[in-house]
Amino acid sequence: MSLLIFFLLSCLKIAVVLAIFLGAVAYTVLLERKLVGRIQNRWGPTRVGPFGLWQPMADGLKLFLKEDLIPTGVYRPLYILAPMIALGCALISIAVIPFGARITWHGVDMFEVANVNIGLLVILGVTSVGVYGIALAGWSSNNKYSLLGALRASAQVISYELALGLSLVGVVLRAGSLNLRTIVGSQSAHGLLSWNVFGGFQFVAFFIYLMAAYAETNRAPFDLPEAETELTAGYHTEYSSMKFAMFFMAEYANMITVGCVATLLFFGGWTSPFGSLLPAFGGIFLQAIVPVFWFVFKVFCFLFLYIWVRGTLPRLRYDQLMGFGWKFLMPLAIANILATSLWLALRSA
Amino acid sequence: MAVPIAYYLVLSAILFSIGVGAFLIKRNIITVFMSIELMLNAVNLSFVAFAYQWHRVQGQIFVFFVMVVAAAEAVVGLAIIIAIFRSRSTLNVDQVNLMKL
Amino acid sequence: MHLVLFIFFGGLCVAGALNLLLQRHPINSALSLIVVMSSLAVLYLLLGAEFLAAAQVIVYSGAIMVLFTFVIMLLNAGKEERTHGSRAAYMVGIPGVAVLVSLLAFIFLSARSHLAQARLGEYVVSTSDLSKVLFRDLLLPFEVTSLLILIAILGAVALASREH
């Protein structure tokens, strides 16, 4: 009986989280267009709805109703499978991300879909499998530009996966666990000061993580494989309508996941920066909801940073990009692991 | 509902045998290489099953080492395949039968 | 529950392995092998090896098979041709494999009463348990393995580079 309740509540949680996540993806597109517009001294979309707020609906409708072209020479099974892999992997990682304190109802955790002991490795694993979406899309498109763009993008992603994984080891060393709730719990002692980026001295790791994540999601200064002026459109040249929309949504979903992981690991997740200085006010309901607002606010700050960097910095050339990942970020991440383990060993000695 | 460890071992045996069959039957050198990876994975499964059986962690650590060795072997083997392809322009094992380049 | 999951993912493993055998184009074989590896990761989870399941997905499905896929894409490997060698392989291979699998299955199933029963959640190895043994008792093999990886990287770069 309890298994049935668990199953039904989990399905409900998944449906709600997915709906909110997909809405967030749609509105991140709008946020990007407006912010990049303001950086370039123009308004973003303002016509559709007040302040352009219905623009994502219009975009979604347009992409849905466009003609779905499948060129003749493509390798059909992979051509259709690749965007599904990309979007699927982008949406799976939200399952292990906790966005509020542990509050249970009928024995089921309310603010996390699945509390896995190896939560951080699940996110890394799903990112690794997401490479297939790009590689298979480029190869199956039967197009030289797509293949080149796909090869470059996949090589970039697998190179920066290393720096990404290594930069997270410092955080794991400090928390002593791969469970995301435990990692946030190790940062909740004194508010702002005990966050990993400040009190845990992981600012170098945060810096590495941010840059590796920008390269992983093929965005900001590392977006050569899909830049419109470079390789027509890289690996999604031959895609139209819903399949293109899937790649598009996968990219923004990955951005949001990166923001969530950065807040959980480096910025204390849902804990407030004031820690226990402010007295606890309001009832139980407010106590449960306020951490979620802190989490969403921090993720929003990360999205803002993402879009700000995109609008400001010029693109890196491909060899500069690869050299940066292998020759600078990876040794720096290893040095960070060494320094963190030395600090922890000396502290406990 | 419990699953006997013997069933996991039988599954491992089936996967290993299919790997051996693919190794003997396939003519494309990359597919032959993939069948070796399949055999290694089958052995990994039996290691994990026995780690459960005896409640020892060493079985799982051996799997870890097998994974690392398989990765190293895949890297070097694929580099060799690329070098062979460059000199003979074929990926068929039956046509790589002369020592002369 | 455990039995249902085992049969489903075990069946998926065997189906993927058979697909690897039967497909003519290597990219299809590569994709079936990815399915096999992911199903094996779930089977490791059923046996309580959570870190190994994650490592299987990250290392095997996410890195080694990506390498295979790249090589297949770059070398533009087409459909396999049937050459004269394959007839003999069929005649020896298929009966040989059948004998091998029946012998092994007979041995394992007759020892069924001597082996334990696996139950979900009974023996879950946490990452800290694994790392305690790996970095204390088995530190030397660990260091030797890292040396092995270094040698493999050097060998691969030397083999795959163009001669000037």
Q: Can you tell me about this structure?
A:
The complex is a heterotrimer of chains A (349), B (101) and C (164). Chain A is mainly alpha-helical and 349 residues long. In chain A, a hairpin with a 2-residue loop joins strand 1 and strand 2. Chain A starts with a helix and ends with a helix. Chain A is built from eleven helices and two strands. Chain A has one domain. In chain A, helix 5 packs antiparallel against helix 6. Chain B is an all-alpha fold and 101 residues long. Chain B has a single domain, classed as Helix Hairpins, CATH 1.10.287. Chain C is mainly α and 164 residues long. Chain C has two domains: 78 residues, NADH-ubiquinone/plastoquinone oxidoreductase chain 6, subunit NuoJ (Four Helix Bundle (Hemerythrin (Met), subunit A), Up-down Bundle); 39 residues. Chain C starts with a helix and ends with a helix. The mean pLDDT of chain C is 89. Classes of the chains: A mainly alpha (349), B mainly alpha (101), C mainly alpha (164). At the B-C interface, strand 1, helix 1, helix 2 and helix 3 of B face helix 1, helix 2, helix 3, helix 4 and strand 1 of C. Strand 1 of chain B pairs antiparallel with strand 1 of chain C.
The structure class of chain A reads: mainly alpha
What is the multimeric organization of the chains shown? heterotrimer
* Overall tally of structural domains of chain A: 1
User: What shape does the CA trace of chain C take?
Assistant: globular
Can you count the helices of chain C?
6
Structural class of chain C: mainly alpha
The helix-strand sequence of chain C is HHHHEHH
User: Strand arrangement, largest sheet of chain A?
Assistant: 1-2
- CATH homologous superfamily identity of the largest domain in chain C: NADH-ubiquinone/plastoquinone oxidoreductase chain 6, subunit NuoJ
Main beta sheet of chain C, described?
Answer: none
Give the helix level of chain C as a range of percent: over 70%
What gyration radius of chain A follows from the Cα positions, in whole Å? Answer: 21 Å
> Could you name the ranges of chain A where pLDDT drops below 50 across 5 or more consecutive residues?
none
At the fold tier of CATH, the topology name of the largest domain in chain C is Four Helix Bundle (Hemerythrin (Met), subunit A)
Average pLDDT value of chain C?
A: 89
Unreliable runs of chain C: none
Amount of helix of chain A: 55-70%
